Amino acid sequence: MWRMADYDLIRRPRRLRQTPALREFVTETRLHPADFILPLFIADGIDAPREIPSMPGVYQHTPESLVEICREALDAGVKCVDLFGVPREEDKDATGSVAVAEDGVLNRAIALLRKEFGDELIIMADTCLDEFTDHGHCGVLTTDAHGREVVDNDPTVEIYCDMAVAQARAGAHIVSPSGMMDGQIEQIRRALDRAGFADVAIMAYSAKYASKFFGPFRDAVGSSLKGDRRTYQQDPANVRESLLETELDIAEGADFVMVKPALPYLDVLAKIAEMSPVPVAAYQVSGEYAMLNAAGQNGWIDYEETMMEALMSIKRAGADQIFTYYAIEAAKRLNG
Ligand code: PBG
Fold it and tell me: What CATH number should be reported for the domain whose range is 28-335?
């Protein structure tokens, strides 16, 4: 067996930490602006951007401010945005029909960005109904044999298919089903292919947890949800089902898989990064952003540095792409 005493030298881990140049030389993980995906909210019926109270610096956008921030993202080296629609309250209904309508707020925004930026900007769209339903669930509701109100899997997936095709038609490069319905990736893949959109990619929310860290997002989209999503999103206590969900999504045709939230689920991310043959993304969610921001505003932590450390940790754990509301600021810091 190897023993320190066998050698006439002492291992000194600090040797390689002596200077900035040495530290940069031996660093194992490097963030890059192109790692980031910027989530953006486009709201119907507002005439000026509206800051989200629980997410300082994050806005519900008008078409004009949306184009502006996408330009700013591109200038900073961020290549991809993920669009969420915020319809007018009176346009919500039980099936979220505005999500599919060509003139719905999200589809109009996709078309606008595609027209403005062409293929320069990678346009991703959220493919889920919770922003559009009047009950706030991610799918349509039914009453089961025992009188429980539940989200009805297959009819929901059918609507996701129509939504994905509408998004592809509007100009999305990537659709991102975030509703955690069973079989959604396979059905959406088939629907896209049938409609002539074989080149549109699917970002699968594979391991998405029923997380309280989504709190501020629900403010951001004016969610109508009462109750929770525990019958379709995963139990925070479990990791095995993340592997199952991911394997299924890959088999069903996912081009990317994703873990969400990020920082509280780095163990899940690391496991998925080990087994996945497709790129693995992680979503630093609204609550992660809000916590760091609030602590920073109180002077309790250094917001910018802590944020960069969190993003670095997410990459180190295995993320190839990172969704973050801090994308532009992070990219600017990296650009120096
Ligand atoms: C569902 C969706 C949610 C988020 C992204 N897509 C909310 C939810 O599942 O309740 C959360 C994002 C965040 O918290 O930043 N369409």
Answer: 3.20.20.70
